[in-house]
UniProtKB/TrEMBL annotation:
The chain crosses the membrane at residues 278-305, 333-355, 375-397, 440-460, 710-735, 762-784, 796-816. It comes from Thalassotalea insulae. It is found in: Cell membrane. Belongs to the ABC-4 integral membrane protein family. This is Permease. It is a multi-pass membrane protein. Keywords: Cell membrane, Membrane, Transmembrane, Transmembrane helix. It comes from the Bacteria. Residues 287-397, 713-826 form the ABC3 transporter permease C-terminal domain. Coiled coil: none annotated. Its main location: membrane. Residues 20-239, 507-637 form the MacB-like periplasmic core domain. It holds the Pfam family FtsX.
Length: 833
């Protein structure tokens, strides 16, 4: 029985290959996007991080800082207290990230004759037992490595061992320079292991840091596992209680750690914590893909229903001959089974291709900084296959069973008696209107969101950051910490800071003396990067509440840097040797601050100081100059700033600075010259993240722009589905009313009134659909606005262009089929088959 019905269904589908190919393609696109997006989110967020055990790994850290878009480290003393009091944790540890330069001229490995920058993770000694991962060979860090005065040691990741040490098994116990100081290689971790996230090497934290005896200014990230049977909610409750207690007992010096919400220590799934700033965008993507799947279901259902309507006379005859309706439903269901199964198979290929492209995109995004989390390697696993099977089954029921049941609810006696399809019933008409309205609303949401993100990404790519980027090379410079130590809280602290600053000025002079270099800028974060703002108080104009004061992004800069960036001093002076004096704090503000908060042009000479929730700084900064505007951070990020204040590095002495070089000639030659100039001053100074300025500006938003490309594809799919779906449903609805149109024309109603009637009905559906769609779009856009700034121009484009486009679709989908029916003679329309 099944084989006969299946053969019949296949024969009917092969009779109309274009229809079959179209429906299979619609199914494949909808299901392919579903599988792809689930794989993306499952790998990046949903699937817990277990490593070599069945116990999920969690992150313990502070409240995410949305004003700077970074995760907040916490005092290990407080974490240890909370863990001990709760009794809910199986194990926990600490880590921090940094940059270590390994190798140097003494290395026997050719790749390491010059120091190589590594993403270092400084970790607790228990990380090996915590993860359950054993080294590829050698050993991991042990408790002895953390003891006071222990020999410096390092564990290498598998890729570092392969790339820089030629997979030499004799690398164990070799001496290697670690930030210009000798250290010993004790192990190599297995391939694919980079815990906590993108570690290339591992070095020990000191015991005093991970097990302090009292609260301090030290802060670290923490990883943890819960005991068997303990839920995440229980741990969150325990931390909430600890936070409340701590808020009443914490010393004033550390009260800044307690955020306004009171949620100091927080526990979060480890994967989710790593993408907090992107989480809302990913959830919005999942919602958009689900809406596209609904669009695909509606379209396929309507196509199959239209196909059934074309065969309604045949079905009526078969019913009259006594063929059970159940058998007819099965036969029509088989068509959906074939279409959805073929579409599902094709969807798997589409999803696999999309995942391959996304993996390539991840590699390109993190090619410079190598900061791709190790679990960001997308695959189609068994869970994705299960999701596909469930989605195919649901689609079969939605697209096959519903049209079949609706078709068999017709009055077949009337069909056989009149030889026509019959008039469209009230329920069928209402159902058709609901489908069209739903299609309009769903397509509006997808298209508006895709347009918002595409437009925002475009404006970010052409944004003016207030600097010249052409023929500019950028890099990061880092001093070796042991060689340029800072003796804090001693009489030598200021001397050490000045020594650091002077070294950077020597490097700056060496670079500027190279023949192909025109100018050099040195800054803590260059315009187009960095972000976040802090409040400042203008002397004599303090606000009653700290966050009612003005705010600005704060950067450290070396004097003589403006020219290289294409910026200029507008008022006052640049920093000079005077600004390096001890206890002298001068700043330069940008033009926007001067204009908005010193409208009389009297900013120079005024004093400002930083203010926080816990109080104002004791240090007043004197404004000595005003510089042209630049923009820090990306224009797509909500934490970026157009208000900027600059502090001289002369008496601050940062360990690392970003540099921008205006060069002439070839970029490759410029990179070689840069390395040579720095090595001439001090070969132990690290140079890394060398790239063009344009690439530097794109770097912070590459992930967001990549997600935008996915939305763009979703938008293209939505346009095709919406156009075809709206037209098909409107046309089918009008065709089913052919008899009614024939009757109206027969009694003398003009054609223009009939067209007007259908346009009026379509207008009502359009108004309802667009109202719902625009409202949902704006709600979702607001949901993701913590991560992305959607500029007004993008809102204007999306909220005008998309409703206009959909209105045009509906207009054409109404007029064209109506005119086609009106071409029939009234007598033919009355007996339309």
């Amino acid at each position: 029985m099944v084989s006969i019905e299946l053969k019949y269904s296949l024969r009917m589908l092969l009779k109309k290959p274009l229809f079959t190919a179209l429906t299979v393609l619609i199914v494949a696109i909808g299901l392919g996007l579903t599988v792809y997006s689930f794989s993306l989110l499952n790998n990046l967020v949903f699937k817990p991080l277990y490593l070599n055990s069945e116990t999920e790994i969690f992150a313990v850290e502070g409240e995410f800082d949305h004003s700077h878009l970074f995760r907040t480290r916490v005092d290990p003393y407080h974490v240890n207290q909370a863990v001990a009091q709760s009794g809910l944790f199986e194990q926990h540890g600490f880590y921090s990230r940094g940059t270590t330069f390994i190798g140097g001229g003494s290395s026997k490995h050719s790749a390491l004759f010059t120091a190589q920058k590594m993403n270092a993770s400084y970790i607790s000694w228990n990380l090996a037992s915590f993860t359950g991962i054993q080294p590829h060979f050698g050993r991991f860090l042990t408790a002895d490595d953390f003891a006071e005065g222990a020999e410096p040691v390092v564990v290498l990741s598998y890729p570092v061992w392969q790339k820089y040490f030629n997979a030499d098994p004799n690398v164990m116990n070799q001496q290697l320079a670690l930030d210009a100081l000798p250290g010993r290689i004790v192990g190599v971790m297995p391939q694919g292991f980079s815990f906590p996230d993108y570690a290339e090497i591992w070095q020990p934290l000191t015991e005093a840091l991970v097990n302090p005896t009292k609260a301090s200014y030290n802060s670290l990230f923490s990883y943890a596992k819960l005991k068997a049977g303990v839920s995440l909610e229980q741990a969150k409750t325990a931390f909430a209680n600890f936070n409340k207690e701590l808020a009443t007992t914490i010393e004033d010096d550390y009260r800044y750690r307690i955020p306004n919400s009171g949620e100091y220590l927080q526990i979060t799934p480890f994967k989710k914590a790593s993408i907090t700033q992107y989480y809302n965008v990913f959830i919005a993507l999942l919602l958009v893909v689900f809406l596209i799947l609904l669009l695909a279901c509606i379209n396929v259902s309507n196509l199959l229903l239209a196909r059934v309507n074309e065969r309604i006379k045949e079905i009526a005859i078969r019913v009259a001959l006594g063929i059970p309706r159940k058998k007819l439903i099965i036969q029509m269901l088989w068509e959906s089974v074939v279409i959805c199964s073929l579409g599902g198979a094709l969807a798997l290929l589409f999803a696999a291709y999309g995942i391959e492209l996304t993996n390539q995109m991840f590699e390109a995004t993190f090619a410079v900084n190598h900061e791709k989390p190790f679990w960001w390697a997308l695959t189609i696993d068994s869970t994705c296959i299960l999701i596909l099977i469930v989605a195919v089954a649901a689609m079969i029921l939605t697209t096959g069973l519903i049209p079949a049941i609706k078709a068999l609810q017709n009055d077949f006696n009337a069909v056989i008696r009149d030889g026509t399809r019959g008039a469209l019933g009230k329920k069928a008409a209402a159902s058709s209107k609901l489908l069209v309205t739903s299609e309009i609303a769903l397509s509006c949401v997808v298209l508006v969101l895709a347009t918002l993100l595409l437009s925002t990404g475009y404006f970010a790519s052409i944004a003016d950051y207030g600097v010249e980027t052409e023929q500019r090379l950028t890099a990061e410079l880092q001093l070796p910490p042991e060689k340029y130590q800072l003796r804090r809280d001693t009489e030598f602290e200021h001397q050490d800071r000045v020594a650091r600053a002077q070294l950077f000025y020597k490097i700056k002079a060496a670079i500027e003396n190279m023949p192909n270099f025109k100018a050099v800028a040195m800054m803590s974060q260059l315009p187009g990067t960095g972000e976040g703002t802090s409040y400042f108080e203008i002397e004599g104009r303090a606000a009653e509440v700290f966050n009612e004061n003005p705010y600005s992004n704060n950067e450290v800069i070396a004097r003589g840097s403006w020219q290289a960036l294409g910026m200029r001093i507008i008022q006052g002076r640049d920093f000079d040797h005077r600004d390096g004096e001890e206890d002298l704090y001068n700043i330069i503000i940008n033009e926007s601050i001067a204009r908005d908060f010193f409208p009389d042009g009297d900013a120079v000479g005024k004093r400002v100081r930083r203010v926080h929730r816990t109080g104002a700084s004791d240090t007043w900064n004197t404004i000595v100059g005003v510089v042209s505007d630049s923009y820090h951070g990306s224009t797509m990020r909500s934490s970026s700033a157009s208000y900027n204040s600059y502090h001289p590095n002369d008496n601050i002495g940062f360990m690392s600075l970003s540099i921008a070089i205006h060069y002439s000639g070839d970029q490759v030659e410029a990179i070689r010259t840069l390395n040579q100039a720095v090595a001439n001053v001090d070969p132990d100074v690290g140079i890394f993240h060398v790239q063009s300025y344009d690439n530097l500006i794109r770097q912070p938003v590459k992930m967001l722009l990549s997600v935008t490309k996915i939305f763009m594809f979703c938008g293209i799919v939505a346009v095709i589905l919406a156009a075809s779906g709206i037209y098909a449903m409107s046309a089918n609805s009008i065709i089913q009313r052919t008899q009614e149109i024939g009757i109206r024309r027969a009694i003398g109603i003009p054609d223009r009134k009939i067209i007007h009637m259908f346009l009026k009905q379509a207008g009502t559906q359009l108004l309802i659909g667009l109202s719902v769609g625009v409202a949902l779009s704006v709600a979702i856009a607001n949901y993701i606005s913590d991560t992305i700034i959607i500029n007004p121009e993008s809102y204007g484009i999306a909220l005008f262009a998309i409703p206009t486009l959909i209105s045009l679709m509906v207009l054409l989908a109404t007029i064209i089929p109506t005119q086609n029916v009106l071409r029939l003679e009234p007598s033919d329309a009355l007996h339309y088959d």
